[in-house]
Known about the structure:
Elements: E1 13-15, E2 21-23, E3 27-30, H1 35-40, E4 52-55, E5 60-61, E6 65-66, E7 75-77, E8 79-85, E9 101-108, E10 111-112, H2 113-121, H3 127-130, E11 136-137, E12 142-143, H4 144-147, E13 154-159, E14 162-168, H5 176-186, E15 194-196, E16 204-205, E17 211-216, E18 222-226
Parallel strand pairs: 3-15, 5-11, 6-18
Antiparallel strand pairs: 1-2, 3-4, 7-10, 7-16, 8-9, 8-15, 9-12, 13-14, 13-17, 17-18
Amino acid sequence: MTEFVITPPPIASIPVVRGGAFPVRRVYCIGRNYAAHAIEMGHDPDRDPPFFFQKNPNNLDATGIFPYPAQSSDVHHEVELLVALKSGGTNITVEDALDHVWGYAPALDMTQRDLQGLAKKMGRPWEIGKAFEHSAPVGPLQPVADTGHLDSGKIELLVNGEVRQTGDMNQMIWKVPEMISYLSENFELAPGDVIMSGTPSGVGPVARGDTMVVTIEGLADLTVKVV
C-alpha cells in the first residue's frame, strides 16, 4: 500500500438520487455542441470534428450555491446535461458507447466570459475562464435504470423565473454516443469520468442575488443561488 507523504485530498463526487455518491475522475466538456449556440458565439455550426476542454473534478459543486468570483465582472450561465460513465476504454464504438453510461444529471458550465475572451484573444488556454472554483454546479445523478438514455427532451434554464435558455437534447450536433466514442479515440476513458454535453443558445450574465433553475426533461430540477 502506498504511503503518502501528505494527507490525500478528498475524492470529488456527485450525490446520487436515493443516496450514495459517484466518484469523479475527470471532467470533459464539449464546446459549441448546439448549432444556435455556435452561431451566437460567432462560429459556423457545421459538423466539424468536436473539440473539448476540461474542468477539474472538484469544480463540481452540489451545494446549490454559486459564489460569484471576484476576478470577473461578466460571468455567464450555460445549462448542460452531464453524463457519468461507469466504465471506459479506448476506441469505443458509437454502437457500444451507451453501455458505458451510469447515469445523468443537470449541470451548469459557469464561465468567466471576460477572462475567457481575453484568453482567446491572446491565444491562451481557457482554464481561467472555465475551470475556476465552483464553476460546475450539479444536481444529483440519476441512474440509467430510472431515466433511460436521454437523447431528446427539453433542456432549459430560468433566471429569476425568466426563461434564458431553451432547447431540445436532440439538437446536439454531436450526440452522447458520438462524444464518448470520439473521446475514447484520444483518451483512455475510465469509470468516474463525466462529460458535460454542451449548451443551447441564450447564454448570458448572472448577478449576485440571482436564482438559476435548470430543467432537463427526465431529471429532477437543479436550483442554484448566486451569492
